[in-house]
Amino acid sequence: MKGLVIRTPWINMILAGTKSWEMRSKLTHIRGRIALIRAGSGLIVGSAELVDCLPALSLEQMRQTQGFHGIPDDQLASAFEANWTTPWVLRNVEVLATPKPYQHKSGAVKWVHVPDEDPQQSMSAPTQQATARAVSRSAVAKVVPAPTAKADAPRSSGTTSTWVDIPITGGNLRHHHFYLRTASALLPSDCIGGNNKQKPGKSICVSFQPGRVRDADIDGVKMILRARSETRDFFERSGAVEGDCVRFSRVGDRDFVVSLKRAAAPMPA
Q: Where do the domains of the chain lie?
């Protein structure tokens, strides 16, 4: 079985279901289920179906398809210049309940061979099914999250990938934070610090989608991320409004993804 080595934060986004295009510099003819490997960890963290490989995109096409590949605005130009313009389309992502070690061949930087003695047994049932956003080779469209009637309850199936939806208030938008009290079960206890920077907790890695990646701890009194500027940037980029939800997803031991879930549109009278 082929295993694809993917760096953080992109692997986190794939596992969380917020990214269905893995951007690469060259075409691939490989198809079928592949293992997903977190770069530098020596661990298989999930699997996915590699269903297509699209032609290289222009910079404008990359801007228009940001909902598929998840590259932030401020990184698009550098990604284009580095030739990370070819979408490998992933579908049916499954997250391993327990990451599985493998033997990494010296010199391998993209593909590795991993045992496939029983791939159906080694890959767990999905805790978050990444939505397949199938597009034709000529189609270029931006994904808009589908509205739902109300915020979902926390989701968990005993695996490392869990999430909770946190309603956004007007005060959150004005003060650039969101409350993590309902997500406390997802957080490592050592990341919760005191009420100021002189009493920090141990950092977690938070990928704002759209937005930046930030190592941060939690203000244990207010139960908010000590990442106000990144949270403000996320609210502005996503167009968050009061009544929307922050989806706070745990995708690894200390890796989290922050994304936006739109509130339902009001029913017509």
A: 2-122, 162-261
261 phi and psi angles, rounded to 5 deg: -120, 120
Pick the CATH number of 2-122 from 2.30.130.30, 3.10.20.340, 1.20.120.450, 1.10.3720.10: 2.30.130.30
Single-letter residue type at 23 = M
* pLDDT tens, residue order, the chain (269 aa): 899 999 999 999 999 888 999 999 999 999 999 999 999 888 999 999 999 999 999 999 998 888 889 998 889 999 999 999 999 999 999 998 889 998 877 776 789 888 764 444 444 333 333 333 333 332 333 333 333 333 344 443 334 457 889 999 999 999 999 999 989 888 988 999 988 777 889 999 998 988 888 899 999 999 999 999 999 999 999 999 999 999 998 887 888 889 999 886 555 55
What does the alpha-carbon distance between residue 62 and residue 239 come to, in Å, rounded to a whole number? 19
- Looking at domain 162-261, which CATH architecture does it have? Beta Barrel (2.40)
pTM: 0.56
Please tell me the chain's helix, strand, coil percentages from 3-state DSSP, rounded to the nearest 5. 20, 30, 50
